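Duplicate of #3305? Posting structure anyway:
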């Protein structure tokens, strides 16, 4: 028997990749989570822009009794949506947690993998070999740095989403500069500087005169309650993250 193939004219189904951000949940205390979300994102209303999100429960599995605790997924989803996040998937939970998550409308996302930022220096030192068989890259070129050439007064905030931030004038006390990449301030930095805002641990902060109220890289921060070392206070300096015996910490070094 010979059958005539019919071509669908109204739709097609194909495989696709979709960018996600991940929330690594380390506690089932949603009240504490709400406080920390407010502390980090409460004054940055446009930090997220309807970003699809996967909730990763893997950290709970190493937290003793927290691994077996129930999670109010509907309340968690509501909290995340208030920050313009769109939870769509869950992974890493125990069977009871995964069942509860699916009842709340989340889909299993065990195949979602976290991306580890690759240092720019490493990629520059080891360029990929070019061959005639390589297909041209269709990705959009990276955004250039956001450049600010006017002083930032107290209460002003600048966020360089998905790129570096370059400031050519003073960042006064009470002002805030935020970037997903590096932050360069070619003037006194007296306000708050938050680099690697979306978890890029390779991000750094550079300042011609370091006098910051707050310094943060990938969620690790230091406030003015802990004074800056005298060798960098008021001098050209850089701030970066390094691994230590007690976890990641901020390290400040003077620049000549």
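Output from current build:
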């Amino acid at each position: 028997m010979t059958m005539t193939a019919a071509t669908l004219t109204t739709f097609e189904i194909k495989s696709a990749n979709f960018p996600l951000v991940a929330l690594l949940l380390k506690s089932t205390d949603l009240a504490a989570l709400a406080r920390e979300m407010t502390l980090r994102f409460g004054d940055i209303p446009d930090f997220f822009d309807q970003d699809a999100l996967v909730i990763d429960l893997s950290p709970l599995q190493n937290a003793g009794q927290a691994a077996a605790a129930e999670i109010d997924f509907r309340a968690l989803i509501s909290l995340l949506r208030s920050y313009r996040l769109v939870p769509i998937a869950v992974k890493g939970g125990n069977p009871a947690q995964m069942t509860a998550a699916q009842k709340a409308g989340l889909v299993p996302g065990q195949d979602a993998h976290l991306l580890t930022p690759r240092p720019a220096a490493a990629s520059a030192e080891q360029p990929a070999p070019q061959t005639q068989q390589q297909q041209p890259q269709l990705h959009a070129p990276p955004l250039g740095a956001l450049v600010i050439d006017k002083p930032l007064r107290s209460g002003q905030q600048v966020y360089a989403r998905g790129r570096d931030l370059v400031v050519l004038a003073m960042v006064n006390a009470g002002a805030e500069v935020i970037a997903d990449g590096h932050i360069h301030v070619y003037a006194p930095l007296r306000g708050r500087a938050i680099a690697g805002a979306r978890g890029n641990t390779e991000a750094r902060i550079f300042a011609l005169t370091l006098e910051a109220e707050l310094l943060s890289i990938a969620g690790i921060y230091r406030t003015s309650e802990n004074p800056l070392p005298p060798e960098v206070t008021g001098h050209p300096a850089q701030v970066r993250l390094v691994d230590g015996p007690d976890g990641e910490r901020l390290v400040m070094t003077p620049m000549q």
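Confirmed duplicate; merging threads. The two ends are 82 Å apart (CA to CA). Residues 21-108 form a domain with the Alpha-Beta Plaits fold (CATH 3.30.70.260).
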